[in-house]
Design brief:
Length: about 450
């Protein structure tokens, strides 16, 4: 039997979720689950019973009394409520207009999420909705977030409604989608968001086949042997132990907030850089949570012994002469997509005076394309211990402070494409500066 896959596809209305989820189900032999249909089902039932769909106290008793039966036909889940299958009525206008209010009710969500999770017993699933990757199956590695610009989505939904014989105007459809998107992404309970680790696909750029190809390609990439294997764990452990002990004895190194580094999934650790001691300091402290790939200038690999060591501990060689080294960037992006942890120094090179420098433009590109959250880190004291201009190593204390995760959602809120890259770099440096300020004010104690 092939392994069980739970493919989670989220996104706003008419972004193409059901189309691609059906396609994935067909090609990968999964059961297709339209979770929106469950919320529509609850709404349909309430409208049938004449229940006020804005009043949770009226909805809950009717929902709890209703009997739901599930069955799989043509590789998709269907349900009946109290013996009636709602079918196409789920797409009716009254249901469409009321569903976001119903879906915002925590008790309804609890009911639906619990039923969705039970479907795991059916085997592999391609499930689409708003919170599949963030709430229903947060542990699945196969998370996708589909999006498309609002005009394109409204155009698609309008064409669909016209084909069903409805008479809504394009403008009305657009407004209805906007209303629903707003409710779905601002509600308190499980709002629509990009789940951490989700792979974002802008479907306005592709036809259906194109989206399916990207999605299936991503699944197949995830199933390739992990590039994490670039790290030899024994070498890594020995190097961290050795360097960590050295830093403890000589610099009394202390770490704060290391638990902010998630134990799994693609993540970037972004630290300030003032000394050669920063990579070993960050590597040794982060080791408690996970192994980390650093990026280092390729000239360090020239010495064969050093080169062999750096390769074994998973360091990515970076050609600093060539502005943005695309090969190194691609390696780092692939590692992030494979769920690895990549550490980098947004300032590019060591600070000449110990002060924070602006981020290099490449960092924004890497963060945007790697689609991973970022842990900001402030290393304090490494400049005093071994700066660019000092004669050598000093036994000064070093502290490594890990800040709260900058989520993909915050990053996406800065916009898309090239214009967002410098903003991403600025945001990261701002978070590092806040950590510096808090640490220096004595506000960070554990
Ligand atoms: N990539 C695409 N290009 C063009 N039309 C698409 C694409 N993906 C989906 N559609 C069409 O857009 C409409 C909405 O797609 P659907 O999969 O139902 O969206 P969702 O499930 O996100 O609401 C459907 O009529 C579908 O055929
Ligand atoms: N996992 C989900 C799926 C849908 N929903 C809600 O159900 C509504 C209908 O979902 P749907 O997937 O059928 O809608 P479309 O994207 O097909 O227009 C959404 O607007 C959400 O309010 C949700 O809250 N969580």
């Amino acid at each position: 039997m092939s392994k069980q896959r739970i493919i989670a596809i989220d996104g706003p209305a008419a972004s193409g979720k059901s189309t691609v989820a059906r396609e994935a189900a067909k090609r990968l032999n999964c059961v297709y689950v339209d979770s929106g249909a469950f919320y529509r089902g609850v709404t349909w039932k309430m409208l049938r019973e004449g229940v006020n769909t804005k009043n949770p106290l009226a909805v809950l008793p009717v929902l709890l009394k209703s009997k739901w039966k599930f069955e799989v036909r043509d590789r998709a889940v269907f349900f009946s409520i109290d013996g009636v299958e709602p079918g196409e009525a789920l797409r009716d206008k009254d249901v469409r207009e009321a569903v976001s209010d119903i879906a915002a009710m925590p008790a309804v969500r609890k009911f639906v999420v619990s039923n969705l999770r039970k479907l795991k017993k059916l085997g592999s699933l391609a499930m689409e909705g708003r919170d599949i990757g963030s709430v229903v199956f947060p542990k699945t590695p196969y998370k996708f977030y589909l999006d498309a610009n609002p005009e394109e989505r409204a155009k698609r939904r309008h064409a669909e409604l016209i084909a069903r014989g409805e008479t809504e105007k394009a403008q009305e459809v657009m407004e209805s989608l906007e209303r629903r998107d707003k409710k779905d992404s601002t509600r308190k309970a499980a709002p629509l968001k990009i789940a951490d680790g989700a792979y974002v696909i802008d479907t306005s750029e592709y036809d259906v086949e194109g989206v399916a190809r990207v999605l299936l390609g991503r699944i197949s990439d995830l199933e390739k042997p992990r590039s994490d294997k670039m790290i030899n764990p024994i070498w890594y452990r020995i190097a961290c132990k050795f360097l960590g002990m050295g830093l403890k004895v000589c610099n009394n190194i202390q770490a704060y907030g290391v638990q902010n580094v998630p134990k799994s999934g693609g993540v970037i650790i972004a630290s300030n850089h003032a000394s050669y001691l920063d990579p070993p300091a960050v590597g040794a402290c982060s080791r408690r949570m996970r192994m980390t790939h650093f990026m280092a200038r390729d000239t360090l690999f020239k010495n064969p012994l050093m080169g062999a060591f750096l390769h074994r501990v998973g360091v990515i060689p970076l050609d600093r002469e060539r502005g943005g080294d695309l090969k190194a960037m691609k390696t780092a992006i692939q590692l992030l997509k494979d769920g690895a942890c990549v550490a980098l120094f947004p300032e590019g090179t060591r600070s000449p005076d110990g002060n924070l420098q602006p981020a290099k433009p490449g960092i924004g590109f890497l963060v945007a394309k790697g689609a991973a959250p970022v842990v900001p880190v402030y290393v304090h004291g490494s400049y005093e211990a071994w700066s660019k201009h000092s004669d050598g190593f000093q036994r000064k204390p070093i502290n490594v402070i890990y800040g709260k995760l900058i989520t993909q959602e915050e990053i996406q809120a800065l916009g898309r494409g090239k214009a967002a890259y410098p903003l991403i770099g600025d945001l990261i440096m701002q978070r590092i500066a806040e950590l510096k300020q808090k640490f220096e004010a004595g506000e960070i104690t554990e």
